[in-house]
């Protein structure tokens, strides 16, 4: 088939706008008349810096990222960030705890920490260090497991496990009042949109809102819903996302981070103390302060992928004069169309997550049929969809069913086409 014949609903990597790909393809051979392809240009060149700076600026404009936040382009994907968030925010926690002990004991901050300070710090790490996770789906579960692997399960507090309120399966978000948050955690981590389970936080959790001096350190994985709705950036310490769903091509991961978290910590200044305390000190390429200091060009970065992300941002800025609010309205319209078609036929379809937490991005449902049973109907549904150019609809292998990923590159026409197919399939007689 031709590219134009297909609407691809895969969960990631996702569709990219064809005009962006055409520009990118030409740039791979000869970028801006330099005679050299973009993937061949040095990441140390002015040209590379310009591409990074332009993408940062456009992302900040599109999402209204405040000035006291920095934007980093990193490598290692969303999964790399499961580890990076732990390394970096535990180091910040230890540094702050160290400062408090020094103050309490009236000791000056000095490279050579006295034994009693080290002892106090060790005690604090052993007894107080916690990272809180809201486990609402497969990806936040994976992040919490990575944290347990890195610093030990005794430091990981699962403040909420969605399976406990939904018969052992993901599909709901427990009431905020039931979350068991720690007193002073290194971070509260959650995944804003669970790609596999189709669960999205409807809004920023009120209990995590900043409260004056004692701001909670909130970290969110927005890999699969960034750029699709307005985000109260000020409420977060770190937001991260892989580019490959709503931003660009696979190969870069974006971190939006509060600048106050970037000054050196024990992890930079006192690696031997970190070793003594028994907390992990991650690879330098995952260290936010190092990447920020070098404007994301500490080591070889795929400028080509940053360029594609930049082109997508330019296109979005041109399409939506009111920036991400415009995309948000469209995303909601598309999702509503698809959910309405599903809800209209309860005899044929069952949306997996609870209505209150339905994702606008990953629409997960089962095809049911009273007589023929689920499996057969889903196979027929999928075969028929491919026949009309709707592809990539198979659910994640861990949960089965159907998943329509309604990312930004799915046009309104694409969503309409899927809604129509859902309607028509329900109307067909099936054995
Ligand atoms: N977080 C979310 C929400 C995801 O959907 C994914 C991948 O689909 C990841 C993290 C992992 O990303 P990566 O494959 O880039 O490591």
TrEMBL record:
Pathway: Amino-acid biosynthesis; L-serine biosynthesis; L-serine from 3-phospho-D-glycerate: step 2/3
EC number(s) stated in the UniProt entry for this protein: 2.6.1.52
Gene Ontology, cellular component aspect: cytoplasm
Superkingdom per UniProt: Eukaryota
Reaction catalysis annotation: 4-(phosphooxy)-L-threonine + 2-oxoglutarate = (R)-3-hydroxy-2-oxo-4-phosphooxybutanoate + L-glutamate; O-phospho-L-serine + 2-oxoglutarate = 3-phosphooxypyruvate + L-glutamate
Cofactor(s) in the UniProt record: pyridoxal 5'-phosphate
GO MF annotation, one: O-phospho-L-serine:2-oxoglutarate aminotransferase activity
UniProt keyword annotation of Repeat present: no
Keywords of the record: Amino-acid biosynthesis, Aminotransferase, Pyridoxal phosphate, Serine biosynthesis, Transferase
GO biological process, one term: L-serine biosynthetic process
Ranges of residues in domain Aminotransferase class V: 8-103, 117-416
Family: Belongs to the class-V pyridoxal-phosphate-dependent aminotransferase family. SerC subfamily.
NCBIfam families noted in UniProt: PRK05355.1 (NF003764)
UniProt name for this protein: phosphoserine transaminase
Biological classification of the source: Eukaryota, Fungi, Dikarya, Ascomycota, Pezizomycotina
